[in-house]
């Protein structure tokens, strides 16, 4: 694709998206720019062919599509520093914001406050870190100025490493918490399941690998079989068998209520971060 792609903030999530993009060859690293306050933190990017700078304005000047990858509380600072270092305040830019909780309206107002671009469009996304290995999910909401062609470009960039779906903005909180925070919840589950096998005598490395593959495979079964997870669960539980004993232990530990509470807590916190 014949445009330069920028990242303002090259931390965990931006790096995962960068990895997804370069591993799938959907955009050449020579046309990717990244900025952040510590150049030494951007070594991975330059080692993989991107251009790194400490000036946000340089990314702004050189790129047509720019991912905002700073923490939500750094939005104003990042935009202020674009303003200070750009040579071309009035250019057309498509911003892609991954900032948890920050609405399109908030992002647009902040951009308008610090930058007098001739044309600004905003796409809000909620990605997740498994995009780094091509197994992510990313939802997005474009503002009303984003064209179908631009949506297609965004879907091509993100869809190379994620299931990429357009959603109405009012679902960004709940689905965003599930998608964005969920991997951390699942890492806990995988670690705990492996601990269970280790407790019964299994070697740690085998237990972890098998737990991860089992969780990945279970997700694939839900996606590919088209069956409800309750039915898939029943297919594993023989009457009087071992699995139903494990299920009973999980219910005693309120696993389902705990998972629901986790997504609820993350959704509430995401809303707070947006204020
Ligand atoms: N991590 C995740 O799983 C997900 C994160 N997100 C969102 O992604 C965003 C980034 O999160 P995450 O990657 O985890 O955080 P990180 O802390 O890993 O990355 C933030 C990056 O921003 C850089 N930075 C700080 N200040 C500025 C500035 N003024 N200008 C430019 N860059 C700056 C930091 O540089 P330095 O390190 O040099 O200080 C750092 O590399 C957040 O808004 C978060 O809500 C969304 C979905 C999932
Ligand atoms: O917790 C965080 O800061 C980010 C937001 C979404 C997922 N992780």
What is the element layout, followed by pairings?
Elements: E1 5-8, H1 12-23, E2 32-35, H2 43-47, E3 51-53, H3 56-62, E4 65-68, H4 75-85, E5 92-97, H5 104-114, E6 119-126, E7 136-142, H6 148-159, E8 162-166, H7 172-199, H8 204-225, H9 229-236, H10 242-252, H11 255-273
Parallel strand pairs: 1-2, 1-4, 2-3, 4-5, 5-6, 7-8
Antiparallel strand pairs: 6-7
Helix pairs in contact: 3-4, 4-5, 7-8, 7-11
Bound molecules: NADPH dihydro-nicotinamide-adenine-dinucleotide phosphate and (2S)-3,4-dihydro-2H-pyrrole-2-carboxylic acid.
The site of NADPH dihydro-nicotinamide-adenine-dinucleotide phosphate has 29 residues, from helix 1 and helix 4.
Molecular structure report:
- The chain is of the alpha/beta class and 275 residues long.
- Helices cover 53% and strands 15% of the residues.
- Strands 3-2-1-4-5-6-7-8 form an 8-stranded mixed β-sheet, with helices on both faces.
- The radius of gyration is 21 Å and the shape is elongated.
- NADPH dihydro-nicotinamide-adenine-dinucleotide phosphate (NDP) binds next to helix 1 and helix 4.
């Amino acid at each position: 694709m014949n445009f330069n792609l920028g990242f303002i903030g090259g931390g965990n999530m931006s790096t995962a998206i960068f990895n997804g993009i370069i591993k799938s060859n959907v955009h050449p690293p020579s046309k990717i720019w990244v900025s952040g306050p510590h150049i030494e933190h951007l070594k991975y990017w330059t080692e993989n062919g991107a251009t790194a700078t400490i000036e946000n304005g340089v990314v702004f000047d050189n790129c047509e599509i720019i991912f905002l990858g700073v923490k939500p509380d750094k939005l104003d600072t990042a935009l202020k520093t674009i303003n200070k270092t750009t040579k071309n305040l009035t250019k057309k830019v498509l911003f892609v914001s991954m900032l948890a909780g920050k609405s399109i309206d908030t992002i647009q107002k902040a951009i308008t406050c610090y930058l007098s671009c001739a044309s600004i469009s905003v796409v809000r996304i909620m990605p997740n870190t498994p995009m780094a290995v091509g197994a992510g999910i990313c939802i997005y909401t474009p503002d009303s100025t984003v064209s179908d062609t631009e949506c297609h470009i965004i879907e091509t960039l993100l869809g190379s490493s994620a299931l990429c779906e357009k959603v109405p903005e009012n679902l960004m909180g709940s689905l965003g918490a599930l998608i964005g925070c969920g991997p951390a919840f699942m890492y806990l589950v995988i670690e705990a399941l492996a601990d269970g096998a280790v407790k019964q005598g299994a070697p740690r490395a085998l237990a972890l690998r098998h737990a991860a593959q089992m969780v990945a495979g279970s997700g694939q079964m839900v996606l590919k079989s088209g069956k409800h997870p309750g039915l898939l669960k029943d297919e594993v539980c023989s009457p009087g068998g071992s699995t139903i004993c494990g299920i009973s232990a999980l219910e005693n530990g309120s696993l389902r209520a705990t998972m629901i509470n986790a997504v609820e807590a993350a959704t509430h916190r995401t809303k707070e971060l947006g204020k």
